[in-house]
Amino acid sequence: MTKSDDNSWLRKIFPRALWSRRFTIIWAGCFATVLAFDLLWSMATSFRGLGFASTYIFGATLALAMAAPAAIWRSRWPSAIILVAADLLAIANLMYCRTYFGPIPPASYLLGGNVAEFGDAIRHSLRLSDLVFPAITILTLLLSTVKSIDSPEPPARKRLKATLAALAAGVAACQACGALQGGGVLSHITHLKEECYYRATPPVAYTLPVSILADLLESNRPISDQELADARQWLREGDMLRSEPAANLAYKPGNVVMIIVESLEAWPLGKSVEGQEITPCLNRLLADTATTWMAPRVLSQVGPGRSIDGQLLMTTGLLPMADYVYSMRFPDHTYPHLAQTLRADSGMKSYLLSGDRATTWNQGAVAKSFGIDETRFRDSWDSSESFGHPRNPSDGSFLRQVADCMKKGEIWPEGERALVEVITYSSHFPFTIPEEHRRLRLSADYPAPLGDYMTAINYTDHAVGEFISYLRSRSDAAETMIVIVGDHEGLASWRDPIRAACPQLASLVDAESFVPMIVVNSPVAGRYEPVMGQVDIYPTILDLAGIPHTQGIFPGLGFSALSPSAPGAAIDITGRMTGASDSIPAAMADHLRRSYGVSSTIIRADMLR
Question: Nearest CA to 418 among 373, 380, 463, 470?
Protein backbone atom coordinates (compact mmCIF):
# COMPACT_ATOMS: atom_id res chain seq x y z
CA MET A 1 0.00 0.00 0.00
CA THR A 2 1.44 3.39 -0.98
CA LYS A 3 1.67 6.42 1.25
CA SER A 4 -0.91 8.22 -0.88
CA ASP A 5 -3.29 5.31 -0.37
CA ASP A 6 -2.70 5.52 3.34
CA ASN A 7 -3.58 9.23 3.30
CA SER A 8 -6.70 8.83 1.19
CA TRP A 9 -9.96 10.43 2.33
CA LEU A 10 -11.34 7.00 3.18
CA ARG A 11 -8.52 6.28 5.60
CA LYS A 12 -8.97 9.69 7.20
CA ILE A 13 -12.62 8.96 7.91
CA PHE A 14 -12.01 5.35 8.96
CA PRO A 15 -8.54 5.17 10.54
CA ARG A 16 -9.04 1.47 11.21
CA ALA A 17 -11.26 -1.11 9.57
CA LEU A 18 -14.84 -0.07 10.29
CA TRP A 19 -15.59 -3.14 12.32
CA SER A 20 -12.68 -2.84 14.67
CA ARG A 21 -13.12 -4.27 18.13
CA ARG A 22 -13.57 -0.78 19.61
CA PHE A 23 -16.24 0.16 17.09
CA THR A 24 -17.98 -3.20 17.57
CA ILE A 25 -18.11 -2.73 21.35
CA ILE A 26 -19.64 0.74 21.05
CA TRP A 27 -22.11 -0.46 18.41
CA ALA A 28 -23.09 -3.37 20.67
CA GLY A 29 -23.59 -0.95 23.57
CA CYS A 30 -25.80 1.31 21.43
CA PHE A 31 -27.80 -1.69 20.20
CA ALA A 32 -28.21 -2.91 23.80
CA THR A 33 -29.57 0.53 24.74
CA VAL A 34 -32.12 0.36 21.91
CA LEU A 35 -33.18 -3.19 22.86
CA ALA A 36 -33.43 -2.25 26.57
CA PHE A 37 -35.80 0.57 25.65
CA ASP A 38 -37.83 -1.81 23.48
CA LEU A 39 -38.20 -4.30 26.31
CA LEU A 40 -39.14 -1.76 29.00
CA TRP A 41 -41.55 -0.01 26.61
CA SER A 42 -43.21 -3.32 25.77
CA MET A 43 -43.58 -4.13 29.47
CA ALA A 44 -45.53 -0.88 29.92
CA THR A 45 -47.65 -1.26 26.76
CA SER A 46 -47.66 -4.43 24.65
CA PHE A 47 -45.09 -7.01 23.56
CA ARG A 48 -46.48 -7.06 20.02
CA GLY A 49 -43.79 -4.66 18.80
CA LEU A 50 -41.09 -7.24 19.54
CA GLY A 51 -42.56 -9.45 16.82
CA PHE A 52 -41.66 -7.07 13.97
CA ALA A 53 -38.51 -7.77 11.92
CA SER A 54 -38.11 -4.00 11.61
CA THR A 55 -37.64 -3.79 15.39
CA TYR A 56 -34.23 -5.40 15.10
CA ILE A 57 -33.22 -4.12 11.67
CA PHE A 58 -34.04 -0.50 12.46
CA GLY A 59 -32.57 -0.94 15.93
CA ALA A 60 -29.29 -2.25 14.54
CA THR A 61 -29.22 0.55 11.96
CA LEU A 62 -29.85 3.21 14.62
CA ALA A 63 -27.04 1.69 16.67
CA LEU A 64 -24.75 2.01 13.63
CA ALA A 65 -25.59 5.71 13.35
CA MET A 66 -25.03 6.21 17.08
CA ALA A 67 -21.67 4.41 16.93
CA ALA A 68 -20.42 6.25 13.81
CA PRO A 69 -18.36 8.82 15.79
CA ALA A 70 -16.30 5.93 17.16
CA ALA A 71 -15.12 5.24 13.62
CA ILE A 72 -14.34 8.90 12.92
CA TRP A 73 -12.74 10.03 16.23
CA ARG A 74 -10.53 8.03 18.51
CA SER A 75 -11.80 9.99 21.54
CA ARG A 76 -14.56 8.31 23.49
CA TRP A 77 -16.32 11.59 24.41
CA PRO A 78 -18.51 11.86 21.29
CA SER A 79 -19.79 8.34 21.95
CA ALA A 80 -20.29 9.15 25.62
CA ILE A 81 -22.39 12.22 24.76
CA ILE A 82 -24.53 10.23 22.31
CA LEU A 83 -25.11 7.39 24.78
CA VAL A 84 -26.04 9.75 27.63
CA ALA A 85 -28.41 11.69 25.36
CA ALA A 86 -30.00 8.41 24.24
CA ASP A 87 -30.39 7.35 27.88
CA LEU A 88 -32.14 10.61 28.81
CA LEU A 89 -34.46 10.41 25.80
CA ALA A 90 -35.34 6.79 26.52
CA ILE A 91 -35.96 7.32 30.24
CA ALA A 92 -38.03 10.48 29.65
CA ASN A 93 -40.29 8.68 27.18
CA LEU A 94 -40.64 5.64 29.44
CA MET A 95 -41.67 7.88 32.34
CA TYR A 96 -44.17 9.63 30.10
CA CYS A 97 -45.50 6.33 28.77
CA ARG A 98 -46.22 5.04 32.28
CA THR A 99 -48.87 7.74 32.62
CA TYR A 100 -49.92 8.53 29.04
CA PHE A 101 -49.32 5.14 27.34
CA GLY A 102 -47.47 6.71 24.41
CA PRO A 103 -44.31 8.66 23.49
CA ILE A 104 -43.85 12.34 24.28
CA PRO A 105 -45.48 14.42 21.50
CA PRO A 106 -42.83 16.43 19.61
CA ALA A 107 -44.29 19.79 20.67
CA SER A 108 -44.18 18.81 24.35
CA TYR A 109 -40.37 18.77 24.41
CA LEU A 110 -40.57 22.57 24.48
CA LEU A 111 -42.95 22.77 27.46
CA GLY A 112 -40.26 23.26 30.06
CA GLY A 113 -42.50 25.36 32.30
CA ASN A 114 -44.99 22.56 32.72
CA VAL A 115 -42.23 20.03 33.44
CA ALA A 116 -40.93 22.24 36.27
CA GLU A 117 -44.43 22.39 37.77
CA PHE A 118 -44.73 18.60 38.00
CA GLY A 119 -41.33 17.74 39.44
CA ASP A 120 -42.68 15.39 42.10
CA ALA A 121 -44.79 13.47 39.59
CA ILE A 122 -41.80 13.14 37.25
CA ARG A 123 -39.49 11.81 39.97
CA HIS A 124 -42.06 9.26 41.11
CA SER A 125 -42.41 7.94 37.55
CA LEU A 126 -38.87 6.58 37.64
CA ARG A 127 -38.29 2.83 38.09
CA LEU A 128 -35.28 0.83 39.26
CA SER A 129 -35.28 -0.84 35.85
CA ASP A 130 -34.35 2.53 34.32
CA LEU A 131 -30.88 2.10 35.80
CA VAL A 132 -30.14 -0.38 33.01
CA PHE A 133 -29.45 2.57 30.67
CA PRO A 134 -26.61 4.21 32.63
CA ALA A 135 -25.30 0.72 33.40
CA ILE A 136 -25.03 -0.11 29.68
CA THR A 137 -23.42 3.26 28.97
CA ILE A 138 -20.79 2.90 31.71
CA LEU A 139 -19.95 -0.68 30.73
CA THR A 140 -19.68 0.24 27.05
CA LEU A 141 -17.34 3.15 27.71
CA LEU A 142 -15.18 1.08 30.07
CA LEU A 143 -14.80 -1.77 27.59
CA SER A 144 -14.08 0.61 24.72
CA THR A 145 -11.05 2.07 26.54
CA VAL A 146 -9.10 -1.19 26.67
CA LYS A 147 -5.84 -0.43 24.84
CA SER A 148 -5.64 -3.71 22.94
CA ILE A 149 -8.98 -3.45 21.24
CA ASP A 150 -7.68 -1.54 18.22
CA SER A 151 -4.87 -3.95 17.38
CA PRO A 152 -4.77 -5.10 13.73
CA GLU A 153 -6.98 -8.04 12.90
CA PRO A 154 -6.22 -10.97 10.62
CA PRO A 155 -7.39 -10.42 7.01
CA ALA A 156 -9.70 -13.43 7.20
CA ARG A 157 -11.57 -11.95 10.14
CA LYS A 158 -11.87 -8.61 8.35
CA ARG A 159 -13.35 -10.36 5.30
CA LEU A 160 -15.83 -12.22 7.55
CA LYS A 161 -16.98 -8.98 9.18
CA ALA A 162 -17.29 -7.28 5.81
CA THR A 163 -19.44 -10.18 4.59
CA LEU A 164 -21.67 -9.98 7.66
CA ALA A 165 -22.00 -6.19 7.28
CA ALA A 166 -22.97 -6.61 3.61
CA LEU A 167 -25.51 -9.28 4.54
CA ALA A 168 -27.05 -7.01 7.20
CA ALA A 169 -27.21 -4.13 4.71
CA GLY A 170 -28.94 -6.40 2.18
CA VAL A 171 -31.55 -7.52 4.70
CA ALA A 172 -32.17 -3.88 5.69
CA ALA A 173 -32.62 -2.95 2.01
CA CYS A 174 -35.17 -5.75 1.54
CA GLN A 175 -37.03 -4.61 4.63
CA ALA A 176 -37.06 -1.01 3.34
CA CYS A 177 -38.41 -2.15 -0.04
CA GLY A 178 -41.16 -4.08 1.71
CA ALA A 179 -42.10 -1.02 3.73
CA LEU A 180 -42.17 1.14 0.60
CA GLN A 181 -44.55 -1.29 -1.10
CA GLY A 182 -47.00 -0.71 1.75
CA GLY A 183 -46.76 3.07 1.43
CA GLY A 184 -43.49 3.57 3.27
CA VAL A 185 -42.46 3.61 6.91
CA LEU A 186 -44.45 6.74 7.76
CA SER A 187 -47.59 5.24 6.25
CA HIS A 188 -47.10 2.04 8.22
CA ILE A 189 -46.61 3.99 11.45
CA THR A 190 -49.86 5.86 10.80
CA HIS A 191 -51.58 2.53 10.15
CA LEU A 192 -50.24 1.02 13.38
CA LYS A 193 -51.47 4.01 15.40
CA GLU A 194 -54.96 3.48 14.03
CA GLU A 195 -55.01 -0.13 15.25
CA CYS A 196 -56.23 -0.82 18.78
CA TYR A 197 -53.51 -3.31 19.77
CA TYR A 198 -50.62 -1.73 17.85
CA ARG A 199 -50.99 1.97 18.67
CA ALA A 200 -48.05 1.96 21.08
CA THR A 201 -45.73 -0.20 18.94
CA PRO A 202 -44.09 2.36 16.53
CA PRO A 203 -41.34 3.42 19.01
CA VAL A 204 -40.35 -0.25 19.20
CA ALA A 205 -41.00 -1.34 15.61
CA TYR A 206 -39.20 1.65 14.05
CA THR A 207 -37.15 3.04 16.97
CA LEU A 208 -38.02 6.07 19.06
CA PRO A 209 -36.30 8.72 16.86
CA VAL A 210 -38.16 7.51 13.75
CA SER A 211 -41.43 7.50 15.70
CA ILE A 212 -40.81 11.08 16.89
CA LEU A 213 -40.00 12.16 13.33
CA ALA A 214 -43.18 10.53 12.04
CA ASP A 215 -45.26 12.34 14.70
CA LEU A 216 -43.59 15.64 13.83
CA LEU A 217 -44.27 15.24 10.11
CA GLU A 218 -47.86 14.16 10.73
CA SER A 219 -48.66 17.01 13.12
CA ASN A 220 -47.30 19.63 10.69
CA ARG A 221 -48.99 18.16 7.66
CA PRO A 222 -51.60 20.52 6.14
CA ILE A 223 -55.22 19.41 6.43
CA SER A 224 -56.53 18.09 3.14
CA ASP A 225 -59.90 18.87 1.60
CA GLN A 226 -60.76 15.19 1.95
CA GLU A 227 -60.16 15.29 5.72
CA LEU A 228 -62.44 18.31 6.04
CA ALA A 229 -65.11 16.57 3.96
CA ASP A 230 -64.79 13.41 6.05
CA ALA A 231 -65.17 15.42 9.27
CA ARG A 232 -68.32 17.14 7.97
CA GLN A 233 -69.75 13.78 6.89
CA TRP A 234 -68.94 12.33 10.32
CA LEU A 235 -70.78 15.19 12.03
CA ARG A 236 -73.81 14.60 9.81
CA GLU A 237 -73.71 10.91 10.70
CA GLY A 238 -73.63 11.87 14.38
CA ASP A 239 -76.75 14.01 13.97
CA MET A 240 -78.55 11.02 12.46
CA LEU A 241 -77.36 8.63 15.18
CA ARG A 242 -78.16 11.03 18.02
CA SER A 243 -81.69 11.19 19.48
CA GLU A 244 -83.56 13.32 22.01
CA PRO A 245 -83.55 12.46 25.75
CA ALA A 246 -85.75 9.58 26.85
CA ALA A 247 -87.84 12.05 28.89
CA ASN A 248 -88.66 15.69 28.17
CA LEU A 249 -87.02 17.53 31.07
CA ALA A 250 -88.69 20.82 31.84
CA TYR A 251 -86.27 21.49 34.72
CA LYS A 252 -83.85 24.38 34.21
CA PRO A 253 -81.34 24.93 37.02
CA GLY A 254 -80.65 28.47 38.09
CA ASN A 255 -76.99 27.63 38.60
CA VAL A 256 -74.55 24.88 37.68
CA VAL A 257 -71.51 24.17 39.87
CA MET A 258 -69.04 21.78 38.26
CA ILE A 259 -66.37 20.37 40.59
CA ILE A 260 -63.56 18.69 38.63
CA VAL A 261 -61.65 16.50 41.08
CA GLU A 262 -58.04 15.66 40.27
CA SER A 263 -57.46 11.96 39.49
CA LEU A 264 -60.77 10.83 41.00
CA GLU A 265 -61.53 7.27 39.89
CA ALA A 266 -64.92 5.64 40.33
CA TRP A 267 -63.97 2.55 42.33
CA PRO A 268 -63.31 4.29 45.71
CA LEU A 269 -66.97 5.40 45.89
CA GLY A 270 -68.83 3.22 48.34
CA LYS A 271 -65.69 1.20 49.17
CA SER A 272 -64.02 0.77 52.57
CA VAL A 273 -60.53 -0.31 53.59
CA GLU A 274 -59.62 -1.47 57.08
CA GLY A 275 -63.13 -0.55 58.22
CA GLN A 276 -62.89 3.05 56.92
CA GLU A 277 -64.82 4.58 54.04
CA ILE A 278 -62.53 5.99 51.36
CA THR A 279 -65.03 8.67 50.26
CA PRO A 280 -67.51 9.14 53.12
CA CYS A 281 -68.69 12.59 51.99
CA LEU A 282 -69.42 11.54 48.41
CA ASN A 283 -71.05 8.38 49.76
CA ARG A 284 -73.53 10.50 51.72
CA LEU A 285 -74.47 12.33 48.52
CA LEU A 286 -75.02 9.03 46.72
CA ALA A 287 -77.26 7.82 49.55
CA ASP A 288 -79.81 10.49 48.56
CA THR A 289 -81.33 8.38 45.80
CA ALA A 290 -84.21 10.81 45.25
CA THR A 291 -82.19 13.74 43.91
CA THR A 292 -78.78 12.30 42.95
CA TRP A 293 -77.82 10.76 39.60
CA MET A 294 -74.59 8.87 39.12
CA ALA A 295 -72.67 7.24 36.26
CA PRO A 296 -69.90 5.06 37.77
CA ARG A 297 -68.39 3.83 34.49
CA VAL A 298 -67.18 6.92 32.64
CA LEU A 299 -64.11 5.96 30.62
CA SER A 300 -61.15 8.33 30.92
CA GLN A 301 -60.45 9.63 27.41
CA VAL A 302 -57.71 12.18 28.02
CA GLY A 303 -54.57 12.51 25.91
CA PRO A 304 -51.19 14.17 26.48
CA GLY A 305 -52.79 17.20 28.12
CA ARG A 306 -54.32 15.16 30.95
CA SER A 307 -56.22 17.66 33.15
CA ILE A 308 -56.68 20.28 30.43
CA ASP A 309 -57.90 17.50 28.14
CA GLY A 310 -60.43 16.58 30.82
CA GLN A 311 -61.78 20.12 30.69
CA LEU A 312 -62.00 19.94 26.90
CA LEU A 313 -63.90 16.64 26.97
CA MET A 314 -66.37 17.44 29.70
CA THR A 315 -67.06 21.13 29.07
CA THR A 316 -66.85 21.40 25.27
CA GLY A 317 -67.78 17.93 24.02
CA LEU A 318 -64.61 17.63 21.93
CA LEU A 319 -61.96 14.91 22.11
CA PRO A 320 -58.27 15.68 22.71
CA MET A 321 -55.49 15.51 20.14
CA ALA A 322 -52.98 12.68 20.23
CA ASP A 323 -50.05 14.64 18.82
CA TYR A 324 -50.52 18.04 20.47
CA VAL A 325 -51.97 19.57 23.61
CA TYR A 326 -54.72 21.67 22.05
CA SER A 327 -54.41 24.48 24.61
CA MET A 328 -50.72 24.96 23.78
CA ARG A 329 -50.94 24.76 19.99
CA PHE A 330 -54.40 26.21 19.31
CA PRO A 331 -55.45 28.36 22.32
CA ASP A 332 -57.22 30.92 20.13
CA HIS A 333 -59.40 28.49 18.20
CA THR A 334 -63.15 28.17 18.74
CA TYR A 335 -64.36 25.86 21.52
CA PRO A 336 -68.12 25.55 22.25
CA HIS A 337 -67.90 25.64 26.03
CA LEU A 338 -70.79 25.14 28.47
CA ALA A 339 -70.25 28.77 29.49
CA GLN A 340 -71.39 29.98 26.08
CA THR A 341 -74.35 27.61 25.90
CA LEU A 342 -75.65 28.36 29.41
CA ARG A 343 -75.17 32.10 28.89
CA ALA A 344 -77.20 31.98 25.68
CA ASP A 345 -79.90 29.76 27.17
CA SER A 346 -80.24 31.11 30.73
CA GLY A 347 -78.07 34.20 30.97
CA MET A 348 -75.59 32.56 33.35
CA LYS A 349 -72.31 34.27 34.19
CA SER A 350 -69.33 31.88 34.19
CA TYR A 351 -66.43 31.45 36.61
CA LEU A 352 -63.32 29.25 36.44
CA LEU A 353 -61.64 28.82 39.84
CA SER A 354 -58.35 26.95 40.14
CA GLY A 355 -55.43 26.78 42.54
CA ASP A 356 -53.08 26.11 39.65
CA ARG A 357 -51.13 28.64 37.58
CA ALA A 358 -52.81 30.28 34.61
CA THR A 359 -49.79 29.30 32.51
CA THR A 360 -50.01 25.57 33.32
CA TRP A 361 -51.20 23.95 30.08
CA ASN A 362 -51.97 27.55 29.02
CA GLN A 363 -55.36 27.29 30.74
CA GLY A 364 -55.61 31.03 31.32
CA ALA A 365 -55.42 31.73 27.59
CA VAL A 366 -57.72 28.91 26.54
CA ALA A 367 -60.31 29.99 29.14
CA LYS A 368 -60.82 33.12 27.04
CA SER A 369 -61.58 30.97 24.01
CA PHE A 370 -63.97 28.98 26.17
CA GLY A 371 -65.87 32.22 26.76
CA ILE A 372 -65.50 32.15 30.55
CA ASP A 373 -66.31 35.53 32.09
CA GLU A 374 -64.09 35.49 35.19
CA THR A 375 -61.06 33.37 36.08
CA ARG A 376 -59.04 33.07 39.27
CA PHE A 377 -55.81 31.11 39.46
CA ARG A 378 -53.02 30.49 41.97
CA ASP A 379 -52.03 34.13 42.43
CA SER A 380 -55.57 34.88 43.66
CA TRP A 381 -55.29 32.58 46.69
CA ASP A 382 -53.26 32.20 49.87
CA SER A 383 -50.93 29.24 49.25
CA SER A 384 -49.39 29.11 52.73
CA GLU A 385 -51.00 25.67 53.21
CA SER A 386 -49.56 23.71 50.34
CA PHE A 387 -48.65 20.06 49.79
CA GLY A 388 -45.57 19.15 47.80
CA HIS A 389 -44.69 20.83 44.52
CA PRO A 390 -46.00 22.91 42.80
CA ARG A 391 -46.95 25.40 45.50
CA ASN A 392 -50.68 25.26 44.89
CA PRO A 393 -52.99 25.78 47.87
CA SER A 394 -54.22 22.55 49.43
CA ASP A 395 -57.75 21.54 48.47
CA GLY A 396 -58.99 22.23 52.00
CA SER A 397 -57.51 25.74 52.01
CA PHE A 398 -58.49 26.46 48.41
CA LEU A 399 -62.15 25.45 48.75
CA ARG A 400 -62.49 27.30 52.06
CA GLN A 401 -61.16 30.46 50.38
CA VAL A 402 -63.56 29.97 47.45
CA ALA A 403 -66.48 29.62 49.87
CA ASP A 404 -65.36 32.75 51.77
CA CYS A 405 -65.24 34.78 48.53
CA MET A 406 -68.75 33.55 47.68
CA LYS A 407 -70.05 34.50 51.13
CA LYS A 408 -68.65 38.02 50.65
CA GLY A 409 -70.23 38.29 47.21
CA GLU A 410 -66.89 38.62 45.43
CA ILE A 411 -67.64 35.46 43.43
CA TRP A 412 -71.14 34.32 42.45
CA PRO A 413 -73.21 36.45 44.86
CA GLU A 414 -76.51 34.89 45.89
CA GLY A 415 -79.20 35.78 43.38
CA GLU A 416 -76.83 35.72 40.39
CA ARG A 417 -77.31 32.93 37.84
CA ALA A 418 -73.95 31.31 37.21
CA LEU A 419 -71.87 28.44 35.94
CA VAL A 420 -69.05 27.89 38.43
CA GLU A 421 -66.22 25.53 37.47
CA VAL A 422 -63.96 24.56 40.39
CA ILE A 423 -60.78 22.52 39.86
CA THR A 424 -59.03 20.70 42.74
CA TYR A 425 -55.39 19.60 42.83
CA SER A 426 -54.25 17.87 46.06
CA SER A 427 -55.01 14.37 44.77
CA HIS A 428 -52.51 14.81 41.91
CA PHE A 429 -49.80 12.17 41.58
CA PRO A 430 -47.65 11.41 43.61
CA PHE A 431 -50.60 11.71 46.06
CA THR A 432 -48.66 13.40 48.87
CA ILE A 433 -50.74 14.28 51.92
CA PRO A 434 -48.81 15.29 55.08
CA GLU A 435 -49.41 13.11 58.12
CA GLU A 436 -51.19 15.86 60.07
CA HIS A 437 -53.77 16.29 57.27
CA ARG A 438 -54.54 12.60 56.77
CA ARG A 439 -57.97 11.37 57.77
CA LEU A 440 -57.63 7.83 56.41
CA ARG A 441 -55.27 5.82 58.64
CA LEU A 442 -53.89 2.72 56.92
CA SER A 443 -51.82 0.06 58.64
CA ALA A 444 -51.51 -2.51 55.83
CA ASP A 445 -48.72 -2.44 53.27
CA TYR A 446 -50.37 -1.68 49.92
CA PRO A 447 -48.64 -1.85 46.52
CA ALA A 448 -47.37 1.56 45.48
CA PRO A 449 -48.96 3.98 45.02
CA LEU A 450 -52.35 2.58 46.12
CA GLY A 451 -52.12 3.51 49.80
CA ASP A 452 -51.10 7.10 49.03
CA TYR A 453 -53.80 7.35 46.37
CA MET A 454 -56.58 6.29 48.76
CA THR A 455 -55.26 8.69 51.42
CA ALA A 456 -55.22 11.59 48.94
CA ILE A 457 -58.71 10.87 47.59
CA ASN A 458 -60.03 10.62 51.16
CA TYR A 459 -58.50 14.01 51.98
CA THR A 460 -59.99 15.68 48.89
CA ASP A 461 -63.35 13.98 49.55
CA HIS A 462 -63.51 15.75 52.91
CA ALA A 463 -62.58 19.12 51.38
CA VAL A 464 -65.22 18.73 48.66
CA GLY A 465 -67.76 17.63 51.28
CA GLU A 466 -67.23 20.81 53.29
CA PHE A 467 -67.59 22.92 50.15
CA ILE A 468 -70.85 21.20 49.19
CA SER A 469 -72.14 21.81 52.74
CA TYR A 470 -71.61 25.53 52.08
CA LEU A 471 -73.37 25.30 48.69
CA ARG A 472 -76.35 23.65 50.39
CA SER A 473 -76.51 26.46 52.94
CA ARG A 474 -77.09 29.13 50.29
CA SER A 475 -80.50 30.58 49.60
CA ASP A 476 -80.26 29.41 45.98
CA ALA A 477 -79.28 25.84 46.91
CA ALA A 478 -82.54 24.30 45.66
CA GLU A 479 -81.98 25.61 42.15
CA THR A 480 -78.27 24.78 41.99
CA MET A 481 -77.24 21.63 40.13
CA ILE A 482 -73.88 20.30 41.34
CA VAL A 483 -71.85 18.13 38.96
CA ILE A 484 -68.86 16.22 40.41
CA VAL A 485 -66.48 14.51 37.97
CA GLY A 486 -62.94 13.14 37.85
CA ASP A 487 -60.65 14.87 35.37
CA HIS A 488 -58.93 11.57 34.49
CA GLU A 489 -57.89 8.26 36.03
CA GLY A 490 -55.13 8.24 38.62
CA LEU A 491 -53.46 4.82 38.79
CA ALA A 492 -52.21 4.76 35.17
CA SER A 493 -49.66 1.95 34.60
CA TRP A 494 -49.85 0.82 38.25
CA ARG A 495 -53.39 -0.51 37.78
CA ASP A 496 -52.53 -4.00 36.50
CA PRO A 497 -49.71 -4.70 39.01
CA ILE A 498 -51.97 -3.56 41.87
CA ARG A 499 -54.81 -5.82 40.76
CA ALA A 500 -52.42 -8.71 40.24
CA ALA A 501 -51.00 -8.40 43.76
CA CYS A 502 -53.90 -10.27 45.41
CA PRO A 503 -57.60 -11.13 44.84
CA GLN A 504 -58.74 -8.58 47.43
CA LEU A 505 -57.13 -5.72 45.53
CA ALA A 506 -58.47 -7.05 42.23
CA SER A 507 -61.98 -6.75 43.68
CA LEU A 508 -61.24 -3.28 45.07
CA VAL A 509 -59.69 -1.55 42.05
CA ASP A 510 -61.45 -1.34 38.66
CA ALA A 511 -59.79 -3.10 35.74
CA GLU A 512 -60.67 -0.14 33.51
CA SER A 513 -59.83 3.55 33.78
CA PHE A 514 -63.27 4.67 34.96
CA VAL A 515 -64.00 8.06 36.53
CA PRO A 516 -67.37 8.96 38.07
CA MET A 517 -70.01 11.52 37.20
CA ILE A 518 -72.23 12.55 40.13
CA VAL A 519 -75.08 15.05 39.77
CA VAL A 520 -76.66 16.51 42.93
CA ASN A 521 -80.08 18.19 42.60
CA SER A 522 -80.57 16.29 39.38
CA PRO A 523 -83.94 16.20 37.61
CA VAL A 524 -83.25 12.49 37.01
CA ALA A 525 -82.17 10.25 39.88
CA GLY A 526 -80.57 6.83 40.01
CA ARG A 527 -77.51 5.10 38.52
CA TYR A 528 -76.51 4.82 34.89
CA GLU A 529 -74.59 1.54 34.68
CA PRO A 530 -73.56 1.31 30.98
CA VAL A 531 -70.14 2.55 29.93
CA MET A 532 -69.97 6.14 28.70
CA GLY A 533 -67.03 8.36 27.82
CA GLN A 534 -65.91 11.68 29.26
CA VAL A 535 -66.95 13.24 25.95
CA ASP A 536 -70.53 12.15 26.78
CA ILE A 537 -70.60 14.30 29.92
CA TYR A 538 -71.08 17.53 27.95
CA PRO A 539 -74.28 16.46 26.13
CA THR A 540 -75.55 14.81 29.33
CA ILE A 541 -75.23 18.11 31.21
CA LEU A 542 -77.04 19.89 28.38
CA ASP A 543 -79.95 17.45 28.71
CA LEU A 544 -79.98 17.66 32.53
CA ALA A 545 -80.07 21.47 32.23
CA GLY A 546 -83.12 21.24 29.97
CA ILE A 547 -81.40 22.74 26.93
CA PRO A 548 -83.22 21.55 23.78
CA HIS A 549 -81.46 20.10 20.76
CA THR A 550 -82.06 23.18 18.64
CA GLN A 551 -80.10 24.46 15.71
CA GLY A 552 -77.18 26.58 16.77
CA ILE A 553 -76.37 24.58 19.93
CA PHE A 554 -73.29 22.39 19.49
CA PRO A 555 -74.37 18.89 20.65
CA GLY A 556 -70.83 17.67 21.27
CA LEU A 557 -69.17 14.67 19.68
CA GLY A 558 -70.56 12.25 22.26
CA PHE A 559 -73.98 10.97 23.27
CA SER A 560 -76.08 11.96 26.25
CA ALA A 561 -76.53 9.21 28.82
CA LEU A 562 -80.21 10.21 28.96
CA SER A 563 -80.72 9.43 25.29
CA PRO A 564 -81.88 6.09 23.84
CA SER A 565 -79.07 6.45 21.28
CA ALA A 566 -76.35 6.22 23.95
CA PRO A 567 -74.10 3.38 22.71
CA GLY A 568 -73.10 1.98 26.10
CA ALA A 569 -69.46 1.95 24.95
CA ALA A 570 -66.58 4.39 24.63
CA ILE A 571 -63.17 4.52 23.02
CA ASP A 572 -59.99 5.86 24.64
CA ILE A 573 -57.00 7.70 23.19
CA THR A 574 -55.24 4.40 22.42
CA GLY A 575 -58.13 3.29 20.17
CA ARG A 576 -59.37 0.59 22.54
CA MET A 577 -63.13 0.29 22.95
CA THR A 578 -64.66 -0.49 26.33
CA GLY A 579 -68.25 -1.46 27.07
CA ALA A 580 -70.92 -3.08 24.92
CA SER A 581 -68.68 -3.12 21.85
CA ASP A 582 -70.05 -6.49 20.66
CA SER A 583 -73.70 -5.48 20.78
CA ILE A 584 -73.71 -1.99 19.28
CA PRO A 585 -74.45 -1.57 15.56
CA ALA A 586 -71.49 -1.59 13.19
CA ALA A 587 -72.23 1.98 12.09
CA MET A 588 -72.06 3.19 15.69
CA ALA A 589 -68.83 1.28 16.37
CA ASP A 590 -67.25 2.77 13.26
CA HIS A 591 -68.48 6.23 14.28
CA LEU A 592 -66.81 5.92 17.69
CA ARG A 593 -63.53 4.62 16.27
CA ARG A 594 -63.22 7.60 13.93
CA SER A 595 -64.10 10.19 16.59
CA TYR A 596 -60.58 11.12 17.75
CA GLY A 597 -59.33 11.76 14.22
CA VAL A 598 -62.37 13.88 13.41
CA SER A 599 -62.03 15.91 16.61
CA SER A 600 -58.37 16.56 15.81
CA THR A 601 -59.38 17.83 12.36
CA ILE A 602 -62.09 20.05 13.88
CA ILE A 603 -59.60 21.62 16.31
CA ARG A 604 -56.72 22.01 13.84
CA ALA A 605 -58.93 23.50 11.11
CA ASP A 606 -60.96 25.60 13.60
CA MET A 607 -64.10 24.23 11.96
CA LEU A 608 -66.46 25.54 14.66
CA ARG A 609 -65.57 29.19 14.22
Answer: 373
Per the structure, the count of domains in the chain is 2
Strand partners, 533: 299
Number of H helices, E strands in the chain: 25, 13
Identify the CA nearest to 304 among candidates 488, 548, 71, 482: 488
**The model's pTM:** 0.80
226 in a domain, yes or no? no
Amino acid (one-letter) located at 128? L
Q: Can you give the CATH number for the domain in which 471 is found?
A: 3.40.720.10
Residues 281 and 334 in one domain: yes
Alpha-carbon span 58 to 55, nearest angstrom = 6
Task: Determine phi and psi for 287, rounding to 5 degrees.
Answer: -70, -20
Residue 393 vs residues 186, 226, 562, 591: alpha-carbon distances, Å: 45, 48, 37, 42
Q: Give the domain extent around 24.
A: 3-219
State pLDDT tens for residues 284-304.
999 998 899 999 999 999 988
Instruction: Outline where DSSP puts E strands in 316-381.
Output: 349-354, 374-376
3-state secondary structure 507-567: HHCCCCCEEEEEEECCCCCEECCCCEEHHHHHHHHHHHCCCCCCCCCCCCCCCCCCCCCCC
1: pLDDT strictly greater than 60: no
